[in-house]
């Protein structure tokens, strides 16, 4: 269950015996794992398995029933500047009257500078972030005029502007076009090479296997955690997905052919609504 | 134009502009109904402050109203978070209950105090010129005008100082919280400002129509705007236009000024919707 074999690094995230519920219905039950630095980690599991809830608990956005979370060995409030959170794209109103640049600037907002102007150094980070996701030329656009993929890149740029060490992203690949998928993957790889850790909630098992180094497989309980090959076993997936064989057989094909990068259009243009077995 | 007309229009315009500034953020935060809630919930605070102080002196009314406005905000949060009711249900319960208490208090003590329900509900902007105040020897004019002017300056100051925080909070509250911003503190400060505007405006347009001043010009501006500062400016413009247009509409129809002002605001909204529809089609 440990990741140390794969990547020897600092423990960046520890989740201890975490349980959480919505309206008294348990969504997470006794989740316990840790992740080390310098990898791309996918949080996967079926719909309603608590993936988003786990992320929201890590970010202190909802109260856990029990258990606790440590980031870089400390409480969240001590290391806020080192953690960046990207909520689901649908969680905001994209008709909101702000420009792309203004949204990315919000990545530089801190409780202490809210009453002041941003510094030049902050603006430089905003420029760099926009450049990295290829959105510099759209900086003045209102966010409502962007495509879904471009909106997702704006969210990514806002996270990059935060200049964190740990990134927690909720479904960044949902509804994005092929160009955006490539852009996001490129940025994620760069982050990893810089020794940063990216934890991504992702609902599509097939692409998850391509994108990530390690996996956290959830279904209210923690099913498995570790390097992707050790997590994506038939037994684990059966436990998480309740033996929906279409998923498993599709996935075994992907795993079998993983020596050859799967780059067909069919994967890239998935709109990502629902789990793969639905479509 | 008579000086009385100017006083009335100017007072209405200043109240509308203050409401528009704060109302813009209510609209953006999808909390327009919270403005409704606050505007009703300030009533018991006003009545209690009035009964205690025994006069329509503004400072105590202000404190009373702000207190019950914040009480409503607190009650809504409490019902929503602790009792786990839906937010709209929490709002519906909190403000109707507080408003009912206010009505009960007014009707019970109505013989003893000069505060009638009509005035509370509908306001009376036509009396603005009658209520004169002198500031030493250099200015004599209607007290409501002076108060509306101060209100506008305070609202404008608050919006300028809090602009970044309100923008962050309105766009993506979860992101704000993830940055460690104390969103509850921002929420309560904002609601305190909404309560302040509501109570000062209530004398002028009444507890019910203030909701329209908070929401309609801001929502109209939202339809036209692609960025925040132009939206705020446009909301103020629509608020002022409603005030001016409403005065003359009321004059022509010989009707309620406050009613006419809000009607004009609604007409501006309808025209905007139509124009935008046509523009989008071409």
Shape, principal axes of CA atoms of chain B: globular
How many H/I helical runs of chain A? 10
Q: Give the strand tally of chain B.
A: 2
Helix content estimate of chain B: over 70%
Order of helices and strands of chain A: EEEHEEHHHEHEHEEHHHH
Following the backbone from N to C, one meets helices and strands of chain B in this order, namely HHHHHEEHHHHHH
The DSSP helix count of chain B reads 11
Question: What Rg of chain A, in angstroms, do the CA atoms define?
Answer: 18 Å
CATH architecture of chain B: Orthogonal Bundle
Mean pLDDT figure of chain B: 87
Q: How would you characterize the largest beta sheet of chain A? A: 6 strands, mixed
Largest sheet of chain B: 2 strands, antiparallel
Distance between the termini of chain A: 32 Å
The low-confidence parts of chain B are none
What number of domains of chain A?
1
Strand order of the largest sheet of chain B: 1-2
Low-confidence stretches of chain A: 1-7, 261-279
Outline the fold blueprint.
The complex is a heterodimer of chains A (279) and B (282).
Chain A: E1 11-22, E2 25-36, E3 40-44, H1 51-58, E4 66-71, E5 83-86, H2 100-105, H3 120-132, H4 148-161, E6 166-170, H5 178-193, E7 197-201, H6 205-211, E8 214-219, E9 221-227, H7 228-231, H8 234-241, H9 245-256, H10 265-268
Helix pairs in contact in A: 3-4, 4-5, 8-9
Chain B: H1 3-28, H2 32-53, H3 58-81, H4 87-109, H5 117-122, E1 132-135, E2 139-142, H6 143-161, H7 163-171, H8 173-178, H9 183-224, H10 228-253, H11 257-281
Antiparallel strand pairs in B: 1-2
Q: Could you please describe the fold and organization of this structure?
A:
The complex is a heterodimer of chains A (279) and B (282). Chain A has a single domain (11-278), classed as P-loop containing nucleotide triphosphate hydrolases (Rossmann fold). Chain A has 10 helices and 9 strands. In chain A, the strands form 2 sheets. Chain A has a 6-stranded mixed beta sheet with strand order 5-6-7-3-8-9, with helices on both faces. A 3-stranded antiparallel beta sheet of chain A has the order 2-1-4, covered by helices on one side. The radius of gyration of chain A is 18 Å and the shape is globular. Mean pLDDT of chain A is 86; it is low at 1-7 and 261-279. Chain A is 33% helix and 22% strand. Chain A has 279 residues and is an alpha/beta fold. In chain A, 43% of the residues are buried. Chain B is 81% helix and 3% strand. In chain B, helix 2 (32-53) crosses helix 3 (58-81) and helix 9 crosses helix 11 (257-281). Chain B starts with a helix and ends with a helix. Chain B has a two-stranded antiparallel sheet with strand order 1-2. Chain B is globular. Chain B has a single domain, classed as ABC transporter involved in vitamin B12 uptake, BtuC (Orthogonal Bundle). The model of chain B has no long low-confidence stretch (mean pLDDT 87). By secondary structure, chain B is an all-alpha fold. Classes of the chains: A alpha/beta (279), B mainly alpha (282). The A-B interface holds A 23, 56, 59-61, 77, 80, 83-85, 87, 91-93, 96-99, 102-103, 106, 109-111, 114-115, 142, 144, 158, 162 and B 28, 30, 84, 161-162, 164-165, 167-168, 170-172, 174-182, 222, 225-228, 230-231.
């Amino acid at each position: 269950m440990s990741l140390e074999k794969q990547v020897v690094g600092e423990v960046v995230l520890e989740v201890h015996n975490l349980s959480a519920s919505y309206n008294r219905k348990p969504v997470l039950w006794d989740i316990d794992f840790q992740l080390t630095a310098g990898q791309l980690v996918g949080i996967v599991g079926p719909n309603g398995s608590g993936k988003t809830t786990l992320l929201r608990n890590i970010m202190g956005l909802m109260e856990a029933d029990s258990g606790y979370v440590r980031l870089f060995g400390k409480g969240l409030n001590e290391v806020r500047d080192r953690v960046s959170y990207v909520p689901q794209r649908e969680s905001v109103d994209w008709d909101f009257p702000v420009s792309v640049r203004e949204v990315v600037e919000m990545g530089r907002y801190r409780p202490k500078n809210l009453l002041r102007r941003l510094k030049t150094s902050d603006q430089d980070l905003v420029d760099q972030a926009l450049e990295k996701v290829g959105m510099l030329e759209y900086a003045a656009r209102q966010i409502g005029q962007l495509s879904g993929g471009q909106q997702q890149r704006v969210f990514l740029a806002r996270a990059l502007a935060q200049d964190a060490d740990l990134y927690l992203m909720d479904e960044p690949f949902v509804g994005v076009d092929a160009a955006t998928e490539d852009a996001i993957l490129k940025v994620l790889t760069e982050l990893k090479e810089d020794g940063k850790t990216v934890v991504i909630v992702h609902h599509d098992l097939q692409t998850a296997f391509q994108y990530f180094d390690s996996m956290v497989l959830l279904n209210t309980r923690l099913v498995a955690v570790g390097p992707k090959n050790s997590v994506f076993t038939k037994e684990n997936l059966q436990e998480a997905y309740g033996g929906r064989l279409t998923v498993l057989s599709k996935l075994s094909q992907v795993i079998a052919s993983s020596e050859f990068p799967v780059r067909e259009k069919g994967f890239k243009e998935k709109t990502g609504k629902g789990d793969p077995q639905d479509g | 134009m008579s000086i009385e007309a100017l006083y009335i229009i100017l007072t209405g315009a200043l109240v509308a502009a203050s409401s528009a500034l704060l109302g813009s953020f209510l609209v953006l935060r999808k909390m327009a109904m919270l403005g409704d809630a606050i505007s009703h919930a300030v009533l018991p605070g006003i009545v209690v402050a009035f009964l205690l102080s025994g006069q329509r002196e503004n400072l105590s009314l202000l404190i009373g109203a702000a207190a019950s406005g914040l009480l409503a905000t607190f009650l809504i949060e409490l019902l929503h978070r602790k009792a786990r009711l839906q937010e709209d249900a929490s709002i519906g319960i909190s403000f109707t209950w507080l408003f009912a208490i206010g009505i009960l208090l007014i009707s019970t003590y109505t013989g003893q105090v000069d505060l009638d329900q009509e005035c509370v509900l509908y306001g009376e902007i036509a009396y603005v010129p009658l209520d004169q105040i002198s500031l030493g020897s250099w200015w004599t004019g209607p007290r409501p005008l002076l108060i509306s002017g101060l209100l506008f300056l305070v609202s404008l100051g608050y919006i300028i100082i809090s602009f970044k925080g309100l923008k962050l909070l309105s766009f993506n509250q979860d992101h704000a919280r993830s940055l460690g911003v104390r969103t509850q503190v921002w929420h309560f400060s904002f609601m305190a400002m909404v309560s302040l505007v509501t109570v000062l405006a209530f004398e002028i347009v009444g507890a019910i129509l203030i909701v329209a001043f908070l929401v309609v010009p801001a929502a109209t501006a939202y339809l036209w705007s692609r960025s925040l500062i132009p939206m705020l400016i446009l909301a103020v413009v629509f608020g002022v236009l409603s005030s001016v247009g409403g005065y003359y509409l009321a004059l022509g129809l010989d009707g309620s000024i406050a009613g006419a002002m809000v009607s004009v605001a609604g007409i501006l909204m309808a025209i905007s919707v139509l124009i935008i529809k046509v523009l989008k089609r071409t």
